[in-house]
Design a protein that fits this description.
single chain; alpha+beta; seven-stranded mixed β-sheet; five-stranded antiparallel β-sheet; 44 strands; 22% helix; globular
Amino acid sequence: MPPEAPTDNAGGGVSLSPWGYRETMHSRHPLLIALMALLLGSGAGHAGFRNTDNTRFATRANGPMGPIVIPHRSGVTNPAGTQGLLTYRQHNPNLLHRAAVTYSHIQDLNLTKHKGEVRFPRTLVHTLDGKLVQTDLAKRQSASYTSSKSSRLRGRRSARSLWATGATVSTAAIGDPANNLTFQFEGWTSAEQASLQSYLTTAYAKAKSIYGPPAFSNTVKIIQDTTISDIQGGVYDTSANEIRLPALTDNFAEDTYVLLMLVLNAFHDDAIFYYDAWEQGFIGAAAYVIQTTPGVSPGYDPIDPGPFYCLSVYEAENQEQLGNNTFYPASGATNMLAWRIAMARAAWLKCYIENEDFFKDFNTAYYAAYTSDLAGDIPSLKEIAASVVPTVEGTPFVEWYEQQYVLDTSVQVGKKLYTWNVPLEDSVALICELYQTSGAGDETPLGGTAATVYWDYTNGVELYAEEGNAIAISSSGATPGEGYLIPTFYNVGGAQRITVQIDVEGLRGEYAYPYAKRGFDSSSNNLYGAIVGDGTGSVDVTGGDGLAGVSVNRGVWGSRITSTDLSPMQVEITFTNEAGQSVTAIRNIGWDSYMCLLQSGSHATASHTFAYDVNGLYLMSLPLKPLSSDLTQVLGVPLEKLLLAWWNPLLAGDNKWELWPQFEFHSPGQGYWWRVPADTTVNLEGLQPDTAQTFEMDVKAGWNLVGCPRLSIVTLDSLQVRQGANDPVTWDAAVAAHLVQDGIYAYDQTVGYQLAEACQPWEAYWLRCLVSDGVTLIFPAVTE
């Protein structure tokens, strides 16, 4: 039988239900914390730091997950060279080189006109007997203790436990406006020091205006360290207040960009965020803004670091596989490193474009509320961010956040396929990453041969590429787990939306892109896109110089919204189809260009009443994709009464429940438990899946909640099931082949579970997949 229906757990026993307690942006029930930590599992990081709560987009960690960790024990002096050796092991240039090879391929294939340097600067922290050392924070607390006569003894004891760094002890509050960083130099020539000092004079002033005052007043040493390679970039040691850099190269603009990121690490210092997606994302995005300010770094081009700048293709690369609790898995696997760095920077840059005081105002509120727990408490950090930017790109911050997959700091176990796909002038660059994620968040590259299919804008005609239909992904060599292909099409017939389908190891990815709409010279489109689900109409844009009535043919469009180079701004893009139906998207865009993927299709309206009877529980789904992104508005239930749960089959353990808004609401096709507070009528306006095409959805091993994606009944015997790249088979054949369990289960408030012979609109069902790699469930096209 399927998992139990949610209950209130009023008897006090442990239930599979997440209900009976409720999280909002302003509260979190302690029972939920305990159950999530015990039942959902956690990802272990370096030095024993891990996720104590692994809830998607709402994790908590007990220490920093991404920095280099130097352990110490009481009464034991680390041998000379220990720090350098441990830094090398956790920041190994040979492993980092694997991540750089990807960029080298991009350059060798002339996919970018830029020749930027690939570097991976890191933060370094110390632990003492397994606990994080926070030297400056402890000094401030110690000084505060000594200011009170009754606390003098305690202050002296605390002060004796600190490592001597020569920094001035300050009683100023964390983030006090008077806090300041001063810089000393060691190991540089007089000319190099003068150049760096001159740069910092301008850049530091701008950094304070963008990032706010530093957490502490500190003297920061900037040391040339010959043991650090160019690809390592450098490190900031939070306990010693030292930046260690390799020798300068002939690319001073990029050298100083790396220095600037480490200076921003020094701004947070002991108050660094525990997750890379936040700390590395914040400093990378803020450094873009500072470095591109006129007068700070003449000649700096933000798109020069190649894959590290990706806002121009952010929507194509925003895929679920980006999530993890660290960018630096303990195994040293670097397949996803460059992509995660790039996407985290781009995500937070969108927040800056929304509000140019974002970083400064966030840090001010963060310091005011600072505790060591807060640094790794994503729900609380999100609450602070939402107070600074209530909406991003027209969507409430919390909902927007949960659509940015690189910001998901939970660990999701299993095999994964991520494809970096970049539209070119007459082709598309495909870089596939195939890997396995463990319960601890570690990652292992996998090998295989990916099969590709290229669909035209109708999704009904297969296109052909001179380069063929296979991507070899090696399990070893220079880039284990990675494969490349740049298909150029010879029966394409001109500009149109093309969908690339990739199948490997039971996984499938589908990537839509606008063929023949991207260019690279000064007259090329700097705003362009594809309409998914529609082919003809027009696009209007506000922002920049604006656009009016740009023609959409075969699902693609493009034009220029500025006569000169593009710069960070917000645009509003409206697509209107031939029937006069419109969809609008707000996008925060940056330098270079921007590709927008808009979901459209036939508009429809539908209405359904969910009656309250016995317990108000429904297995529900929506047959249309809502036009509104506000789920409370869609369902007509206020946030404090909206109880919606999703069963995530990928979670470890027996309890796989997630509560909205801790998951992204997908519809149609996805099913949910919903508890209505009273008789509730949903009047839905949305996009209808193309009825002339089949509707496909992935189901994972074990129980899945699936919804009916149609406005009409779909009988069980009309469903098909496909395993991997095999041909689909009928439902009965799939049952006979032990791909799925016979029968799907519906739920009735009075009767409970019962087998169903058909899928009804607005309803959801339990389906059990018996294949470890999952299968694809196929709903038929609708025939008249």
